[in-house]
Amino acid sequence: MNKIIIGEQIVKSFGEGKERHKVLDRVSVEINEGEFVAVMGPSGSGKTTLMFALSGMDRIDSGKVAFDGVKLSDLGEKELSDIRRTKMGFVFQQPTMLKNLNLLDNIILPTVRDNRKNTTAISEKARKLMKRVGIGDFEKRDITQVSGGQLQRAGICRALMNEPKILFGDEPTGALNSKSADEIMNILSEINEDDGTAIMLVTHDAKVAARAERILFMKDGIIVNETKTSKFARKNLENRVEKINLKMRELGI
Ligand SMILES: Nc1ncnc2c1ncn2[C@@H]1O[C@H](COP(=O)(O)OP(=O)(O)O)[C@@H](O)[C@H]1O
Ligand SMILES: [Mg+2]
């Protein structure tokens, strides 16, 4: 199986002098192409820091991260940002969007910036994605005229415009009610299964993590455990959630 990400012995510290502490303490992690991995752990355990390290959003102190066969520490800022823009997609708790642009224009903005000639084709692609995630009728809406769940769908569309190899999500359902969260998770699962887009999802919600093939459990900057499930077992979400909660209690997280 080809690896999209190989992280080896990653160390990342924050703070100065006596305050300095390791937030990632020799973390090694590999993600296969097309795999759906969730990272769980308490607040402050290093989940976001790990996601930033693996996506090249942040430099690491030592260790190694290879993305799609390329060692990230060998790259300059421009090359790094090119890789992030063309091969990775990002979804955060709330999408950052411009108030004076409608939903469609917000979605296409980063892509149009890269390629001003193909605006029509880019818009068409965005419309297809919007339809696919259920916001096909909202292209002209202001970002203030849609719900949190609809805005997050638009964020997902924007993240998918370049057909990324992997989608990184940092608590993408964290600001949503449980119905909207379920809908967003249905969309993400479908993108993973139908398009083969790998997903790395940071969450502290067992119900969200239950959708993943593999769950990494983090505690104090270390991956302390992981579980893997079959597609079949994931169909029974409630049962899976129970097992995850049990595991977390066992691990004391
Ligand atoms: N930019 C930063 N500067 C200083 N400390 C940071 C920074 N980012 C994260 N930290 C610290 O690193 C630890 C892990 O943070 P984070 O990775 O955001 O945890 P999680 O996502 O699991 O909640 C926390 O103690 C946090 O305060
Ligand atoms: Mg976080």
Radius of gyration: 18 Å
Strand order of the largest sheet: 6-7-8-3-9-10
Q: In this structure, how is the largest beta sheet organized?
A: 6 strands, mixed
Shape estimate? globular
| Low-confidence regions | none
Derived structural class:
alpha/beta
Task: Tell me the number of strands.
Answer: 10
Helix content: 25-40%
User: How confident is the prediction overall: mean pLDDT?
Assistant: 96
Q: Which CATH architecture of the domain at 3-94 and 168-251 would you pick?
A: 3-Layer(aba) Sandwich
Q: Count the helices. How many?
A: 9
Bound molecules: adenosine-5'-diphosphate, magnesium ion
Q: Identify the CATH homologous superfamily of the domain at 3-94 and 168-251.
A: P-loop containing nucleotide triphosphate hydrolases
According to CATH, what is the topology of the domain at 3-94 and 168-251? Answer: Rossmann fold
Kindly estimate the percentage of residues that lie in beta strands according to DSSP. Answer: 25-35%
